[in-house]
Write a structure and sequence with these properties.
The chain is an alpha+beta fold. 25% of the residues lie in helices and 28% in strands.
Amino acid sequence: MSSPSSNANANANAGVADVGILAQNQSDSDDASSVSEGPKFTRRWDVYKNILQYGTEYCGNCCYADIADGSTTSPALPSTVGLRISGVGNVPLPISDDHGNEIKKRAPSEEEDNNGVYEIEASKIKIQNPQWDNSFKQLLTTVAYKLGVNPSKLTAELDGLTYMEKGGYIERSNDDDDDGNDNGVLGAIIIQLPSKFTGGALTIYNCEEDEEEDEDEDDEEEEKSFKFTLGAGEEAAYSCHFACHFLDCEYEMAKLWSGSRVLLRYSLHYKHDRADEIPTAGLIQYLTSPIESSLNGLPPDDRMVLIPLEREYDGLSLVNAGIKALSRGHRQKAEALKAAGAEWELLLVNANLVHNCRSSDHYDTTSVMEVFDERGNRVTSDMKWLTRTIDFHSIEHHDEGMLLAFDDDFECVSNWGACKATSGYYDHEQTYRATFLVSYDPAFEMELKCLGGTEEVAEVCKKIVETRDHGLLDRLLSVVGSKRKSKFDVKS
């Protein structure tokens, strides 16, 4: 194990705190790949630099959709809504054809061709379930984090109800108008009430706009599209689903193949002093893309990042709430990583470090106490390889905590927060406990496991022999030949 002084020198110019094998501070001239030719890789330091440079405020998604039954990180909305429509009465869900026909009679018929879509204004709608308002408020907080905005500034206003019959569809459009930003409208959220249908996928489009002036006016904007099924089939009949997007996004709904659906439409309002202070999908994409690019550019055996939270979250609170137990600042970091690495896994790791201070040397004893997924499920036993891959090192600096790096001004950067306990005086032990965000790419889990040592490499070799998987062999050889400083190199 390296000494504290050598750790300090190795990280003196890091600018960001990191952990163990994830703290290999490569110079700008170093190639992150062991191959002289090939794709240009980024480094973990690029990820941290972008997080520091841009922060995680306004880092999120241009749109998001999920089931609202409590099975994910999104809170549950009552499946028994208690929907009542003026002139129609109480409407059981999923809606029957008879109630659907009653809605059609009372919907405005300004246009003969309504594409099988009927609207009811908000003043005629009432939600009678007393739990709805509180559940919706919790959902709105989740929407804010997913869109990368401040939850305390986001509110919603019911605009109306939409009924779509079989064959109904919504052509591509948007909710933007000249007065949208002036009125504080950030975007929209739709709540799909329990409905039985097939087809009808929702597609949301985001035109990426460069925040900097483009010298070539002929360059076309790059468009991204996101498709959501909203539980089409049996799933939608028993739970609510939701989708949200910014005002500058466009959307469309494909034709319903069978059944019908009922949607509540809300406009999202954002507290602001000026219209130009309201976030847009373009701004969110602009601020999130550097983190996304640096994550995507990491080489196969580097596709993991650790973010220190400098405090410990109690295991019980994580079990009960998952990432919802995090403070606003920490939740923003978690959501920024999820938005930038859409296919990456996010974990919450509670770790313990005992720093032994002796007259002749200093050394650490570290252990991962518990690992949780983002929903709060304990996955410690399933992630044993993680404890062997991550190597925690520390630097002692007076009473300011366990330190893994210095910033440019040689101020200490603490990854462990305050000391939990101290025993002894001259020869003493200091105990630290803290929570870390761990994000990794599961597509390259094999490479990350192999960094833990020969045991993991042996398991992969056994699998290669059994399956004759030559592709897996090539991947293993690439890790072994990468010459990276890691636990794998030390143990081998």
